[in-house]
Each structure stands twice: as C-alpha cells, then as structure tokens.
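Task 17 of the worksheet. Students: predict the tertiary structure of the chain below and write it out as structure tokens. Keep your answer in the requested format; marks are given for formatting as well as content.
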Amino acid sequence: MAIAPIGVLDLSVVTNTLISRLNTYVSTTSPLLQTFDTDNDEPVATPPPPSITCSGAMPDAVRKEAGCQLTFSLFHVTEDKFQRNSALLNPWAQGNPTITPRPQTLQPVPYQPLCLNLYYLLTAFADTQYQQEQQAMSMAMQFFYQTPIVRISVTLPGIGSVPEEFTLTMEIETSDELARLWQAITVPMRLSVVYKVSVVLLTPPAAPPPAPPVKTLSLFSEPATFPYAASGQVIGTTRTVTFASLTSTAANPSILSVDYSPAVAQPSQQFALQGSNLNLPTSNQVYLITPDGVEHNVSNWMVPEPPALPIPPNPPSFQTASRITLQLPQTVGALPANAPPPGVYQLRAGCDSPSPYRTNSTPFSVAAWIATSSVPLPNPPILAPVAGTYTITGEGFVAGATEVLLDTILLPAANFNVVSAAELTFTRPATVANGPYTVRIRVNGVESPPAWWVKLT
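Model answer:
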C-alpha cells in the first residue's frame, strides 16, 4: 500500500527522539552537572547522581533497577479535536525551506492523517535518594521548558526522509488527578509531571492519483423533444481526424483525435451528415449548395454506414434515420463526379419525386487534402527538406488562394509556390527561428486538418 509523504508510521519514533535528546541533556548539558562552591552559610548543593537512566518504560517497570531512573512514559492518546478531519498547514514551516508544509487541500477520510495528542508521564525513582529524584526531575523539566518545539526527520518506506514537527507543553494536573493515575500504576506515588505532545500525525495511505485527462467529451442537452420535420431534417455535419503528435514513436504511440463540427472534409475522406428522419423516401437524396446558390445532387457521394455490430447478418445501409455517411471523390473538379474546390458549402437532404422536398441546409467545409502516407502512424509526420525546399503533395491546392503557415507565422508569397493542384513547395524564411513547427495549409480560407511537422535547425 502506498503511503502519503507526511506524519509518522510509529509513535515510538516520537518517544525515542524525546528520550534520546533528554538523555543527552541530563548526561552532558545540564548546568547541574557543573561543580560550584558556596560562600558563607549557604547550603552546599548535593552532588547530582553519577548516572541517570532515561527510558520510556512505565514507572512500575523500573522500580527494581539500580541508580536513578527517569521515565518518560506514554500513557494516554487522544485525537486532536481542533484538527479532526481537516487539512493542516504546518505554521512553523512558513519561510523555512527545510520543512515541508502540510497539505492545504481537503481530502476525504481515510486519506487524511490521524491527528493525535500524546500524553506522557515524567517521573523519577532513586529509592531513598530523594535528592537524586528531584535533581533528575529538575533537569528534565528544564530541558522540556527549553524545547517547546521539536523538529525531527522521519524516514518513510519508499519515500525517504520527511520533516515533521510538534509542540511539547506541560499539562496542568491536580493532585487528585495524578493520584488516580498512580493508583492505576499500582506502585507508590512519586513526584511526577504530565506533558502533552501535539499534534502528531499518523501517516495515512496515499490518495489515489487524479483521473487521466479527458480525451473525449460529449455533451447532450434535451430539455424537451425537438419537433423534427416528419419528412426529414438535418442538424449538422461531423468528422473525426486522427494524427500523430510530434512526440509519438512506435514504442510509445501518441495518437490524437480532433472532432470537427461542422465537418472539415478532404478529397477521398468520409464525413457524416446528422439529422432525423433521414431514411425516408422524402430524404433519400443529398444535395450540395455552392456559394453561388446553385444546387447539385451529390447522392453518389453516399457510402455504406459501418455495421453497428461486427457480426452477420447486419448488412450495410447507405443511411439511417439519424445519419448519412458521405465520401468526397478523390479529385477536385466538376460536380458531382469530383469534389468541389476548397471552401464553405451547404448540404441538405430531400427528393425530386413523386413530389419535390428539401430539408433545411447545414454547412460543412472542404479543405485541401495533404498526403502523409509516406510516414504511416504512429510515426510523427516530420517533413524533411531537399536542398532547403519542402515539398507537400495532396489535392486541391489553388494558386493565388493558398496560404502556408509555420505555427502562427504566415510565409511570404516569395517563400512558397503552388506547383499544381496536387503539389506545393516552400522554403524557410530567414527570420524564422530554429525549432519544431506545425505546417498549416489554408485554401480559400479553409484550413486543412493537422498533417506535417518541420524541425528547423
């Protein structure tokens, strides 16, 4: 199970850290270890105990041990009511680059750390040597008073070192409350103090990773049934284009898709006419309207609809109630045997007999076709120059109506040439910097779908 990079997995890490630092203080740092003289009639201080043993054991576990026993025992744990099920920000991490701030984003239980207050009982035992007990307690209380904030480095499996910190404060307890605690320990009571360590975080499981980026989003809204025309009606055109990104390789394909609506179709490419009641005798023909308003019957562009299920018997249909699949001819020329030149057109369905009928019209665009078959998917279509000249082949290029762009940089007319309807060439302008660029082709204001990349060096 993966864990979050915060908190501690083991409470004894906190206890051992405090005891280790306390032991260093009482054995080497405390001022009581310094020898001093007294003048006049002042009492002479009792020499401190030669050794103090610090442990996290309960007081009853060390009563038979020799010497002065200083115990710092964890006896009670509570959940911090102020931090329960809430996001935390480490206040001491502000401006401190060595401390990782606690997460500020709310996350549901159980992916939040358990926020705990730890209660420790500090006491000393030296049998009949009450002075040693009081000296050990004096040194310990002085150490904890000087250490209100404890910072530690916790090692979490699979993550490494994680900085954590908590506060250490003395709790005010009455003698009655301490007496009840000592009765539970079942040993004679000694001088004792209760300390609270807070807030200690128990490491939670790591939250699951975020969902992958959305690849396809479809939004439908139907507050009421739309009153489609009973004899047929069209609502739009669509086409999906698939291409490889610049980072795509055979080992790690990166194939992208773009949905065009209205459709942007190219010669020899399929697209869809969407609508309702499109499989009736009154809507069994498709008509193209050119920009000058002339209508052409292009029913010969209709192609079989792909089967809904890849099992027989499911014969292909040229049209369904909601969709007519069309395919532009391979070459550009006279209608309807050929595809129209690039531009914006309209489509509608209808019939000529027994009585003429036409649906409403919907737009779609015809773009120049750009050939990339020399670099099959999933390889990125990177266009290489020959003697500094790039050549693009396809269909539908029009002299005087074609634009070539590298990303957003429009090439001057001197840097490209429409050789024929099936070929154009271009060169790199001197002002264009090195780097990768997408090659964008526009004819009559209609831009072709993504095709070639170039890497200028």
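Marker's comment: The chain has three domains: 12-202, 233-369, 370-456. DSSP finds three helices and 25 strands in the chain.
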